[in-house]
Amino acid sequence: MNRSTVWHPFTQHALEPPMKRIASTQGAYLTDEDGNRILDAISSWWVITHGHRHPTIMEAIRAATEAYDQIIFAEFSHEAAERLAEGLIGIAPAGLKHVFYSDSGSTAVEVAVKMALGYFHNQGEPRDRIVVMEHGYHGDTIGTMSTGERGVFNAAYEPLLFGVDRLPFPEANSEQDTLDRFEAFCRTGRVAALLIEPLILGAGGMKIYGATLLAGLKKIAEQHGCLFIADEVMTGWGRTGTMFACEQAGLTPDILCTSKGLTGGALPLAATLATGDIFDAHLSTDRRKTFFHSSSYTANPIACAAGVANLEVWRNEPVIERIRDLETAHRLNLLRYEADARFANIRQLGTIAALDLIVPAGGYLAKVGPHMRRLFRDRGLLIRPLGNVLYLMPPYCVTTSELEYAYDTIGEVAAIALEHAQ
Ligand SMILES: *Cc1c(COP(=O)(O)O)cnc(C)c1O
Fold it and tell me: Measured from the CB, is residue 105 less than 6 Å from ligand 1?
């Protein structure tokens, strides 16, 4: 058994071989210490957007280190944080006016929830319920686990998780049910906010729902004075085909969380964007109304410089064209599995494609995922199925032939995995 000194995330060390070291990264590839190249078909857990080590972003990081390292972000500001904030407000849905920095997707969501509660608390209105969607994922801290789907991943922590109100996932033809449930929760008058992953639930299994439903939820929230928090941690930065997924529903959330992709994936950074109303509810000569949140590394200047460079890449390079090409390549490659009886729910949203492998029995679910993961690795591919859900979310620099190879390999690996699962 491998009693690893380094304790890896989401890893059962008793079942995994010792970790391969990655020696370098470039574009769509990781290269391990033996010189094997691995196509990063999941963007290193969804963070790498343009490709690994994009030269503009790497250069900005180098340049920033000539000027500063970490700087306390209370009492002082710095150019990188201010330029990035202006840039974010410029590209975010119109109406978001303020940027609060933190370090990860989880903290961006924690900040959002605290802002929502603070908004009502500071106005003396007792609203304390958060509404979420079934199968949602918002992070791994106690607060974000509370708002996410409950299961084996958080069973041990269940006693500490706070209660939330859950909407049924809007399956085709039962969307009205989701809207009605939200309306019913809102009528209690206790709902502070709806916290939702717009258009696609990522870790919950790449489950896609429509922009009309999302817009419907926003409308109900408005009617009842509930805040609408968009967790765009995964969906931001072009993943769904638009800069932010909310654009497709034509809506501006009250609060928007972004992290993965904010620096092109190069450095950890997160931002929670808020409207003027949210900010103003915390603006007071009464110090008790301060927004009480910080972390030591808030607005790390080097990470912010990487974020500014990422905005430059979006401005100066044909990123949207790359996204369109990737969308087309996904669509064409998915076609070959449309009539394949081994797969169900073939789906795509922007640069994300997913399909479910039909496994003989649910009990095999636990085994089929890790088995396929190893088979992909043997074939030079980083693909990590979510149970029986296979998905691809590559960086936008991936070529058509690299993507084709990934799809070829999915067919081959599925055949082997199914044979073993019999
Ligand atoms: C990944 C993710 C998070 C958590 O982000 P971390 O940086 O891993 O803390 C939150 N929300 C969504 C939708 C995510 O995909």
Answer: yes
Same-domain pairing of 305 and 351: no
Q: Give the pairing type, strands 255-258 and 227-231.
A: parallel
202 C-beta closer than 6 A to ligand 1: yes
pLDDT of residue 126: 87
Whether 8 is in a domain gets the answer no
Q: Rounded to an integer, what distance in angstroms lies between the CA atom of residue 213 and that of residue 202?
A: 17
Q: What is the pLDDT of residues 44-90, one digit of tens each?
A: 999 999 999 999 999 999 999 999 999 999 999 999 999 999 999 99
In a shared domain, residues 267 and 395: no
CB 213 within 8 A of CB 170: yes
Q: How far is the CA of 145 from the centre of ligand 1 (A)?
A: 11
Q: Which domain CATH number covers 364? A: 3.90.1150.10
Residues 6+ apart with CB under 8 A from 36: 380
Range of the domain at 167: 57-316
User: What CATH number did the domain enclosing 130 receive?
Assistant: 3.40.640.10
389: tokens are: 């859900």
CA of 113 to the centre of ligand 1 (A): 14
Overall domain count for the chain: 2
Residues 239-294 pLDDT 10s:
999 999 999 999 999 999 999 999 999 999 999 999 999 999 999 999 999 999 99
234 CB near ligand 1 (under 6 Å): yes
**Rounded distance from Cα 46 to ligand 1 centre (Å):** 9
Q: Ligand 1 centre from 160 Cα, in Å?
A: 20
